[in-house]
Amino acid sequence: MSVLVFVEGLNGEIKKSSLEAASYGSQVAQQLGATATAVAIGEVHEEALTKLGEQGIEKVLYDEDSRLNSFVADAYVKVIAKAAQQESSKVLVFSNSNIGASIGAKLAVRLNGSLATNVTTLPNTDGGSFVVTRGVFSGKAFADVALTADVKIIAVKKNSFDVTHNAGATATVEKLSADLADADFAAAPKETVMQETDGVLLPEAEVVVSGGRGLKGPENWHLIEDLANALGAATACSKPVSDMDWRPHHEHVGQTGITVSPNLYIAVGISGAIQHLAGVNSSKVIVVINKDPEAPFFKAADYGIVGDAFEVVPKLIEAAKAL
Ligand code: FAD
C-alpha cells in the first residue's frame, strides 16, 4: 500500500504548496507503515521530481503527455486515478490549491472515496478511525471529519505543514501513461497569462504587501510598492480598491479574488472583512496597519500597528531598506 501525493509544477519546479503536501503525505505513510509515492503531470524538470526524496517520497510517477501542460480537470483525474490504481493507494494527498479544489470531488466520485478539503492536521487513526481536522466557514472554525470510505482523499491547507528537508535523499522516477483517449481536452485553456509583480507571482509569493481603501487613492500606491520592493514582496489589494480601478483586478485578494498563502502578509488600511480574510487566512504571519484600533483585522493579526499608514509605512520602508 502506498500513500499517493499529487504534486503540481510551476516553471519546471514543484510548487511550495505541493512540497508541503509531499511532506505531509510521507508522514501519513510513516504513520500507516506504507510507502510514499508521488504523481506529477505536465512540465516538471526531472531533477525537481528526483528531489522529492527530500520530502520523503520514494517514487514519482510522471505523465509527460504535453497536452497535460494546461490544467484539464477530467484528464488530471484520469492520470491520478490510474496512479492510485497502479499503486493500490488507499490514501491520496494534494494541496488545497485551485487545481486541488477542482479535482478533489471528481476524484472522490471516481474512486468512491471520502474527501476532506482544507485539512490542517495529520490523521488520528486511534481505534481504526481516520479523523482529520479541516478549516470551515472561511477559516473561522474547525471541524473534525471522519473519512470512512476505503479510499481517503485529503486536500491539505496551504502553509499548515512545514516542508521537510532530508538533504540528499532522492526519489526514483517512473513514466506513467494514462489512457486519455476520451479526455475532454476541448476544455483546455488556450492561453495562460501569469501576472507577476517584479517577477513575483501573487499566489506563490512568500511576502505580500496589500493595500485597502485606507490608502485613499491610487496616487498613494507608491507606499505599497516601495515597501513591497524593499521586502521582495508581491503587491495585493482589497476588492473595493480593484473595483474602483485603483489597482488591477488580478491583485484583488479574498473570497471573490485570489487566495494567497505567504509567510508574511502585511495589510495596510484594510478593515478585515470576512470576505477579505477568506483569501489570506492561510498566511503564516499577518501584520495589520490600521488607524482604527477596533478594525476587525486586528483579531486575525499576529502583529498589529495602530497608526496612520502615511506615517507608519514610510518608516517601515526605511527600516526594510536598511536590512
Ligand atoms: P474599508 O472597509 O473601507 O476599510 C478601510 C480601512 O482603512 C478601515 O479599517 C480604516 O480604519 C482604515 N484606514 C483609513 N484610513 C487609514 C489610514 N490613514 N491609515 C491606516 N488605516 C486607515 N473584499 C475583499 O477584499 N475581497 C473579496 O474577495 C471580497 N469579496 C466580497 C464578496 C461579497 C459577496 C461581498 C458582499 C463583499 C466582498 N468583499 C470583498 C468586500 C468586503 O466585504 C469589504 O467591503 C472590503 O474588504 C473592504 O475593503 P477595505 O478594507 O479596503 O475598505
TrEMBL record:
The keyword Flavoprotein applies. FAD binds at residues 213, 269-276, 290. Its cofactor is FAD. Residues 3-189 form the Electron transfer flavoprotein alpha/beta-subunit N-terminal domain. GO terms for biological process: fatty acid beta-oxidation using acyl-CoA dehydrogenase. Pfam families: ETF, ETF_alpha. It comes from the Bacteria. The keyword Phosphoprotein does not apply. Binds 1 FAD per dimer. Keywords: Electron transport, FAD, Flavoprotein, Transport. GO terms for molecular function: electron transfer activity; flavin adenine dinucleotide binding. Belongs to the ETF alpha-subunit/FixB family. This is Electron transfer flavoprotein subunit alpha/FixB family protein. It comes from Pontibacter oryzae.
